[in-house]
Design a protein that fits this description.
InterPro entries: MFS, MFS_dom, MFS_trans_sf. The protein is built from 17 helices and no strands.
């Protein structure tokens, strides 16, 4: 029979644990839906242009325009947010994204869709900036590591679910209407919250040259992550369609789910291990896992069963999609505490440059050798990155364990994400939803 006192203590512990995240739940929900809308749109764009006979090189160009818009929005949107506030900015940019998504129903056109993608990319980045700067302001310093990890995990679930949401209408206008609806729904939680709007805190990023001076390995890794990750995120539906032409949308959703599940599962072990050994070795190992999986996807996908392909996608995600946060941690290790925010914001700029260049190369590769060229490009890029990590390890000593800042999960979404990161602060608590409950249990035991 359960002791009433124990039950009450357990309930209080859960309530306290939930309370750590209550102030940011509405914003996290909006950004999770935003991740879903962006992921769903990539499926619609790729399959829509492919169906109209567009070349893979042109598809890479459209993906590069999205990345260019995203980078531009990350840099410029804090100005607009500081002028009119977070809620108004969120509604403003979401409205533009809705209109842009609906304009895609006018019919496929490479130039038109590329321009629309640039607009949507800028709006998406601005929405992340508004939401993440709000999370940064609402998060107490001692809880920022926990809240950052919580947000990272929940938002990834949105990115997994987005393509499944548009499967029913992925072959026509209905799919774009669903994407527009997802963008519209993102407005609801954040405009309904009673939380006070914060002041915008725009990080001043270090330039690429300065980051290359402080942490060249982090710069190389971030550039490769942008080039590979954005190429795969935007162009994987073409690869999936080649594997399963009769059910391209459904298989694309499953393939995307496998990629992101691998990324989520690989992130935490990578971070845990990188706190104990040279982070560059962890980045190199992740790159090798990703490269080997990419080679297997390139060579064996025409013959392998769906289960094998999804397993390889999972392994690719575990390697290639999980090391960006380790690269950010390595950059933070090389910076002084007061420089950490600018360093991490600068790493995002380098990621953004890679995300523009990568799809252009991947598209040409796919045009040259077929849909498998996407992962051939990824394998080559990841192998080069791993080699550069080993070169840096030989030429430059590892930072001491005392100089290391504990790992925290992060993602390439906005400059404001660096404001949430607690590195350089006195307390850096890792993501643990059960932490408060465990603490209360220990207190009762004592």
């Amino acid at each position: 029979m359960t002791d009433p006192a124990t039950s009450e203590t357990t309930y209080a512990g859960w309530r306290n644990a939930f309370g750590q995240y209550r102030n940011v739940l509405a914003i996290v929900l909006s950004l999770t839906l935003l991740q879903g809308a962006a992921a769903a749109l990539s499926v619609m764009i790729a399959l829509g242009l492919q169906a109209s006979g567009t070349s893979n090189a042109a598809l890479g160009l459209v993906a590069a325009f999205y990345a260019g818009g995203f980078l531009t929005g990350a840099i410029l949107s804090p100005i607009q947010i500081s002028r009119i506030g977070h809620i108004r900015s969120f509604a403003f940019f979401a409205a533009i994204a809705i209109i842009a998504s609906l304009s895609l129903t006018l019919g496929p056109s490479v130039i038109f869709w590329a321009l629309v993608q640039a607009v949507i990319g800028a709006c998406t980045s601005a929405l992340f900036t508004a939401g993440e700067s709000w999370i940064a302001d609402a998060s107490p310093p001692e809880k920022r590591g926990a809240i950052l990890g919580f947000y990272h995990v929940v938002a990834k679930l949105g990115a997994i679910g987005g393509p499944f949401a548009v499967m029913a209408g992925a072959n026509g206008i209905m799919g774009f209407l669903m994407v527009a609806a997802l963008f519209a729904v993102t407005i609801m939680p954040i405009t309904a919250t009673r939380q006070i709007q914060p002041e915008i805190h725009a990080a001043s990023p270090f330039g690429p040259r300065k980051i290359l001076k402080y942490a060249p390995a982090a710069a190389f890794a971030a550039f490769c992550a942008g080039a590979v990750n954005n190429s795969v995120a935007q162009l994987y539906p073409i690869f999936a369609q080649a594997i399963s032409p009769d059910s391209a949308a459904a298989f694309s959703a499953r393939f995307n789910g496998a990629l992101l599940a691998g990324a989520m599962l690989g992130l935490w072990p990578a971070g845990f291990i990188s706190d104990r050994i040279d982070r560059r070795l962890v980045i190199a190992a992740a790159g090798i896992i990703g490269a080997v999986s990419a080679v297997a996807l390139t060579l064996f996908s025409p013959l392998a069963t769906e289960a094998v392909i999804l397993l390889l996608a999972f392994l690719f995600g575990m390697g290639a999609l999980s090391y960006y946060a380790v690269a950010v941690a390595h950059a933070a290790d090389r910076a002084r505490p007061e420089q950490a925010t600018s360093m991490m914001a600068g790493i995002l700029i380098i990621w953004g440059i890679g995300s523009v260049i990568g799809p252009l190369i991947a598209g040409v590769s796919m045009s040259a050798i077929g849909p498998g060229g996407l992962f051939a490009f990824a394998a080559l890029a990841l192998a080069i990155m791993a080699a550069l990590m080993f070169t840096r390890m030989v030429n430059t000593p590892e930072v001491t364990s005392e100089e290391k800042e504990p790992f925290n999960a992060t993602q390439a979404t906005s400059l404001a994400i660096s404001e949430i990161d607690p590195r350089g602060e006195a307390t850096n608590e890792q993501f643990d939803l059960f932490l408060a409950w465990m603490a209360s249990q220990e207190t009762d035991t004592e």
